[in-house]
Amino acid sequence: MPLRARRHAAHPFHPRRLAVLAALLGAAQGAAQGTDAIQVNQLGFLPGARKLAVVAVADGAAAARFAVRDAAGRTVLAGPLGAATTWAPSGQPVRVADFSALRTPGTYRIAVDGVGESTPFPVSADAYRALDAAAVRAYTMNRAGIALDRRVAGPYARAAGHPDDRVLVHASAASAARPARTVIASPKGWYDAGDYNKYVVNSGISTWTLLAAYAHFPAWFDALALDLPEDAGGGPRLPGLVHEVLWNLDWMATMQDPQDGGVYHKLTNQGFDGMVMPDRATAPRYVVQKTTAAALDFAATLAAASRVLARFDTAAPGRSARWLAAAERAWQWALAHPDVVYRQPDDIRTGTYGDDRLDDEFAWAAAELLAATGKAAYRDPAPAAGAARSTQPDWGDVRMLGWIALAGQERRLPDDARTARRDLLAAADTLLARWQASPYRLAMADRDFVWGSNAVALNQALVLVQAYRFTQRRDYLDAAQSALDYTLGRNPLGTSYVTGFGARAPRHPHHRPSVADGIAAPVPGWLVGGPNPGRQDAADCKAGYRSALPALAWLDDDCSYASNEVAINWNAPLVYVAAALQVLQR
Ligand code: G3I
Ligand code: 9MR
Q1: Could you tell me if residue 428 is inside a domain?
Q2: Which atom of ligand 2 is nearest to the CA of 350?
Q3: Given this model, what pLDDT does residue 30 score?
Q4: For 527, how many CA atoms within 13 A lie in the half-sphere containing its CB?
C-alpha cells in the first residue's frame, strides 16, 4: 500500500476507524460491556506489562478466585484474589487480581463467580498507539486561529476562530510604549481547555511536557502518524508532535513585551465565551498583566524548546537562538520583578492560574537556563534549597520539571544531574511506597483528588517513569502502569476518562466545541479532569453529583467544569505516559 494511503487508514479520526469505534461502542453498551464491579484498563496492556484488575466486593462476599477468559470463553489463566481491603477514596472493599502471566496477544475478560465478567480488553504490542495519537491530536483540535478541514478533523471539521491578530493591551498591562488599548498581534496557540482563552502559566507546563515526551521518546513520535494541517502544503515536514508544539511556541513568543522582556499572564476575553463554536465567539480579547510566574514559565519553556528542538533549526534558521535570547530576557525581567503575583482585574472574570509561591518557578527556569546554556550564573538558584511541595508536578508547582531537565544532563552537567536524580528518586520512592500499600494499587493519596485529579495520577506516573529511566527498576514502571490503568478504566466508576477510548468513556465533557458541534460523540482523545470532591461547579450543575467521596465525585455532564472539563495540561502527561509505556515495555 502506498505510504499516504496507509497513514490515512491509521488516522485516528478516519471515518473507517470512527465507524469501527462506534460499532465497538454500540456492542460494548449492550451485553458486551460487562460488569463495572470488575475494573480493568479498557485499552488493555502490552504483553510484558504488569496486569492488575480490581474487584469491588460487597463486604467480603463472593468468590476468592478470578479467571481470565479468551474471546472464545475459554479460561486461559486463573488465580486467587488478594485480600479484601477498603480503599478510603471510594469507601469500598476491593480485591486485586494479578494476571501479569497473561502474555499472549488477544482479547480477554476477567471473570469472578458471583460478580460477573469485565468488559473485554486486549493484550497487544500496540495497545496505546491510537490513544497516544488521539491525545496529541486533541491539541490540534484546540488550535486557535486555524480552520480544520475534513482531512485533518474528519467529522469534527470546523471554521477558524479567534485569529488574535488584533488584541488589546489591558490597562493592567499598560506601559509607556504600549499604553492601554494598544493593538498587538498574538495569534496561534492552543485554547487552554474547554474555554477559548490562552494562559502562559498553563501553556508552559503543557508545552514543556510534550517537549519532554519528544526528547525522551523521539523514535516513537517520529513514527506516529497524526495527519496534521502541516502534512499538506509546501512547508517543512517535521515530526507531528514537533509541528504541534511549534503551533503553541509561536504564540507564546508573542506574549513577551519586546520593550522590557516581561510576559503577559494571559490572553483572554473579559468573561468566558458561551458554549459556541470558535468562529461564533467574537468578544474582544486582551493581554492582561505581566507577572513573575508568566515570565519564569515562559523562560523555562522557551529555554527547553531551544535545547530540544535545536536540530530542527534547518527549517527556521536562528529560531533556537531567538528562543533562548527571549528566555534570558524574561529571566532578567523576573529578577527585577521577583514578586508580581497575578491579581484579577475587576473587569476580567476568566481563569486566573494564580500562584503566590514563586520559588519553584524560579528553580524551574534557572534549571532550564542552566541546561540550555551551561552558564554557572544559573546554578545558584537552580538546585535552590526547597523541596517540591508534592510528589508530582502541576501548573502551580513546577520545581520537578527542572529536576527532570537536569537529570538528563549527565554528560554536560554531571553534578547537577546527580542531584536532580537523587531528588526525583526520593519523590518516586514516596509514590512507590504508596502504590505498594494501596488497596487499589494506586499512588494517589486522598488529598490528590483535586480539580484535575486524573492528571495528578498521570503526573505521578511521569515521575515514576523518570525513576525507571535512571534505575531500570521494574516496580517503578509497574506503578506508572497502574496510574494509566486507573485513568483508562481501573477505577471505582469503571469508566475510561478519555473521550472516544474505552467501552465506557465520557460523553459530555465541558468542552465548547464538543458541546456546540452538533455531533453526539465528543472530540476524541481528551482526558477529562476527573473526580473532585471540591465540586466547585455544584451551583451550575442541576444534575448533581452522586457522591462526595474523593474517587467518586465525578459528573459526566457538560455543566461540570470542576470534574469533566478537558485541559492542555491534563492531556500532556497522558501523551507522555502512553508513549513511555509503549516504548519502555517493548
Ligand atoms: O492551593 C489549594 C490547596 O492549598 C488546598 O489544599 C486545595 C484543596 O482543595 O486547594 C488548592 O487550591 C486549588 C487550586 O486549583 C490549586 O490546585 C483550588 O481549590 C482549585 O479550585 C483550583 O482549581 C483550578 C481551577 O482552574 C480554578 O481556578 C485548577 O487547578 C485549574 O486547572 C483550573 O483551570 C481552568 C482555568 O482556570 C480556565 N480554563 C479551564 C481550566 C481547567 O478547568
Ligand atoms: O467554562 C468555564 C471553564 O472553562 C472554567 O474552568 C470554569 C472555572 O473558571 O468556568 C467556566 O465558566 C463557567 C463560570 O465559571 C460560571 N458560570 C458558568 C460558566 C460556564 O459553564
Answers
A1: yes
A2: 9
A3: 43
A4: 33
Ligand 2 binding pocket mutation candidate from 272, 451, 569 (most atoms within 8 A of CB): 272
Which pairing describes strands 121-123 and 106-112: parallel, antiparallel, or unpaired? antiparallel
Spatial CB neighbours of 290, under 8 Å, sequence gap ≥ 6: 173, 257, 262, 263, 264, 265, 333, 337, 340
Q: What is the pLDDT of residues 37-89, one digit of tens each?
A: 999 999 999 999 999 999 998 765 667 999 999 999 999 999 999 999 999 99
Q: Name residues of the chain where pLDDT drops below 50.
A: 1-10, 15-16, 18-31, 382-383
The number of the ligand 2 atom at minimal distance from the alpha carbon of 197 is 4
Residue 480's SS3 state is: helix
Q: Is 537 a catalytic residue?
A: no
Report helix, strand and coil shares of the chain as percent, to nearest 5: 40, 15, 45
The rounded distance, in Å, linking the Cα atoms of 213 and 1 is 30
Residue 561 Cβ < 6 Å to ligand 2: yes
pLDDT at residue number 62: 66
Q: How many domains does the chain have?
A: 1
- Please tell me the distance from the alpha carbon of residue 433 to that of residue 490, in angstroms, as a whole number: 20
The whole-angstrom separation of Cα 562 and Cα 568 is: 15
How many other β-carbons are positioned within 10 Å of the β-carbon of residue 366?
Answer: 26
Dist. CA 389 → ligand 1 center (Å): 15
Spacing, Cα 166 to ligand 1 middle (Å): 30
Q: Is 192 close to ligand 1, i.e. is its CB under 6 Å away?
A: yes
Helix axes 200-216, 568-584, angle to 10 degrees: 10
Kindly state whether residue 13 falls inside one of the protein's structural domains. no
Does the active-site annotation cover 195?
Answer: yes
Please work out whether the CB of residue 298 comes within 6 Å of at least one atom of ligand 2.
no
pTM, to two decimals: 0.95
Please name which ligand lies nearest the alpha carbon of 272: 2
Nearest CA to ligand 2 atom 5: 561
Q: Can you tell me whether residue 420 is helix, strand or coil? A: helix
Q: Taking a C-beta distance cutoff of 8 angstroms, is the pair 177, 189 a contact?
A: no
Residue 409 counted as domain residue = yes
Catalytic member of 265, 508, 510, 511:
510
Residue 274 is assigned to a structural domain of this protein: yes
- Assess contact for 94 and 547: CB atoms under 8 A: no
* Structure confidence by residue, pLDDT tens digits, 377-414: 999 664 455 677 889 999 999 999 999 999 999 999 99
Query: Under a CB-based contact definition with an 8 Å cutoff, are residues 172 and 289 in contact?
Result: yes
170 is catalytic: no
Domain that residue 412 falls in: 129-489+568-584
Which CATH number fits the domain that encloses residue 307?
1.50.10.10
